[in-house]
Write a structure and sequence with these properties.
Elements: H1 13-26, E1 32-33, H2 45-54, H3 69-83, E2 92-95, H4 97-109, E3 115-120, H5 124-132, E4 136-141, H6 152-155, E5 162-166, H7 178-190, E6 194-198, E7 221-225, E8 238-241, H8 247-257, H9 263-272, H10 276-300, E9 313-317, H11 325-336, E10 338-339, E11 341-342, E12 354-358, H12 363-378
Parallel strand pairs: 1-10, 3-4, 3-5, 5-6, 6-7
Antiparallel strand pairs: 2-8, 7-8, 9-12, 11-12
Helix pairs in contact: 2-9, 3-9, 4-5, 4-8, 10-12
Length: about 375
């Protein structure tokens, strides 16, 4: 059978690194994982307990496509707690992870062939999902002096129907100030560009908190997830907030594309909203890991970095060492036993000279990983 051209998306290279690391582990090697962007902690205990209480007592079948009302209300309350934003729960759409939210958002907002801008370096699946939907991703090269976040002047003269912005960003972990975010939203509104705000790392900050696009405008799409702060990656439950006049459009798409997010995950997610103490304990671990990384990576030689404000990544310029980040990452994996991610995932133009280091694992692994990296670099 023929294959569609839009189905020929690029691989997610970090997953190839995960597979290569796993192959070494089957041979008995101990690998320190700094490649994967997921917490090493399980879902919060309150979430697991809530689901256990429901299992076996009811079918937990389909829910309404927009999500169980209690969860939508709970998410709306989160916006009041975190940002002081009063949000109509009807605008909250519960999705099958943030990936499901991006599919719904891009399908609801854009026509085939539309050009959608995204900052580079950035999350690689934006580009691939857009391609699979017959949309044209437009990479916008961000600059180190702007801490790898886009600014309005980067967008001048670039034709686009939409713009995706992430703060904290992946792979950089850098955040936009409220004024910088407002400048981008204002610029987009002025040019009638649909604005999509990826906020899935909100809650994971190490100084000033992140700002939601909803603090600035209601005429935006906001996407978030229970994967990162709430430590529920494999549960595949996220959400999006849309303007009121978009609710029915997104609902009809969700009905046909997904039916609903997994019911069991929605039950757990509702309880997770109340597990603040456990989530904040996790964040304290990441804060310590970040401190160790910001000290240890420069000592090992990786000193060209934009210090992260949030998430659990550090993005390093390694142009002094290589112009083949994939080969460099593989060499580090095989010789040092540390799995890291080549920048090619995040920036197809400049990513051959960058690496991403994740500090989402336990602190003991971070300490050992930094020791191994220092020893490896000393022998180069």
């Amino acid at each position: 059978m023929d294959r569609s051209s839009r189905g020929q998306v690029d691989p997610f290279i970090v997953m190839d690194m995960v597979a290569e690391a796993a192959a070494l582990e089957t041979l008995g090697r101990r690998i320190i994982h700094m490649e994967v962007g997921q917490p090493s902690t399980p879902a919060p205990q309150g979430a697991i307990a809530a689901l256990s209480a429901r299992m076996g007592t009811e079918a937990l079948g389909y829910t309404v496509s927009l999500g169980i009302p209690e969860l939508r209300a709970g998410i709306a309350a989160l916006y009041q707690r975190w940002y002081g934003v009063t949000l109509n729960p009807e605008r909250v759409i519960v999705t099958a992870g943030s990936s499901g939210a991006f599919l719904l958002a891009f399908t609801a907002l854009f026509e085939a062939g539309d050009r959608v801008g995204l900052g580079e370096p950035g999350y690689p699946s934006y580009r691939q999902i857009l391609k699979a939907l017959s949309l044209q991703p437009v990479g916008i090269a961000t600059r180190a002096e702007n801490r790898l976040q886009p600014v309005p002047e980067d967008l001048a003269g670039v034709e686009m129907k939409g713009l995706i912005v992430a703060s904290p960003g992946n792979p950089s972990g850098t955040m936009l100030s409220k004024s910088a975010l407002a400048d981008l939203i204002g610029y987009a509104h002025q040019r009638e560009i649909s604005f999509v705000s990826d906020e899935i790392y909100h809650g994971l900050h190490y100084g000033e908190r992140a700002h939601s696009a909803l603090e600035i405008s209601d005429d935006v799409y906001v996407i978030n997830s229970f994967s990162k702060y709430f430590s529920m990656t494999g549960w595949r439950v996220g959400w999006m907030v849309v303007p009121e006049d978009h609710i029915r459009t997104v609902e009809r798409l969700a009905q046909n594309m997904f039916i609903c997010a997994p019911h069991v995950s929605q039950v757990a997610a509702l309880a997770a909203l109340d597990c603040v103490e456990e989530m904040e304990a996790n964040r304290a671990v990441y804060a310590e890991n970040r401190r160790l990384m910001l000290e240890g990576l420069p000592r090992a030689g990786f000193d060209k970095i934009a210090p992260p404000d949030g998430a659990f990544y550090i993005y390093a310029d390694v142009s002094d060492f290589t112009d083949d980040s994939l080969g460099f990452a593989r060499d580090i994996l095989h010789k040092a036993g540390v799995a890291v991610t080549p920048g090619l995932d995040f920036d197809p133009v400049r990513g051959a000279q960058t690496l991403r280091f994740s500090y989402a694992r336990g602190t003991a692994d971070i300490v050992e990983g930094l020791e191994r990296l220092a020893a490896y670099m000393a022998q180069r």
